[in-house]
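Q: A reviewer asked whether we had any structural model of the full assembly, not just the individual parts. We don't, so I'm hoping you can provide one. Inputs are below.
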Amino acid sequence: MASVTLTNAGINWSDSQTPTSAGSTQSEILDSYEEGVWTPTSAVGTLSAHHAVYTKVGRLVQISSRLTFGSTSNSTTQTVNGFPFTSYSGAYGAGSVGYSAYTAKALKITIFGDVSSMSLYAHDSTGGLNAAALNSKRIDFTIHYII
Amino acid sequence: MAITKTVVYDKTEIVGDYKAIQCREATIIREDGVELSRSFNRHVLHPSSCEADRDSDGELDGTFTHTDTDISGEPQETQDVCAAVWTDAVKAAWKTKQEADLS
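A: Here is a predicted structure for the entire assembly that you could use as a starting point for your response.
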């Protein structure tokens, strides 16, 4: 009979997997859980943030917040920094925008590997939005990424 | 009955090829020495930040500007870790990586 075991290393699921889905022992141990808050900052200008929280389950991190960028006409690429964990080098993260006052185009969010920040793009562009485009705009979002 | 609040940096981790420093700050509430709650606030330190000029459509329109991260507000222990692992080679590799991400 398959079972889940609690070890010093974490919760071991390896005996509960079917032969076709079982991986290595290492990849079947849930070894961490944590929740807390983080402090978003902007690369350019000011930023106000509300409800900036994170939950980490194993290697998966979910963060969310409501951000409002300060007033600026700066043409430098805008990024949001201050993530609670550094992203895994071998994967990109992505986010969902629940509300955006940037109405020119749909927004997409990308988290590169080895970073603790996100870049904001218009849906049809490969270049990040500059700070002026996000001038005084509010964005509510949730992001998932691997660490 | 004494309620106390203590804030400590309880975890510092060095992560990845570019030596990101993950810092966890714990706020601990105790009553008569017995812990009632512990909450966390996290942030990550990188050697520098990078800015690139863009036009309104997001097209790259200039050169990159790198700014060393100000770690003067971090605990001395964290500053010491940064100084130890952020070698010139790590800093240079991080700058190259950031420019590639922004291009």
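A: Points you may want to mention in the reply: Chain B touches chain A through 30 residues (CB under 8 Å). The mean pLDDT of chain B is 91.
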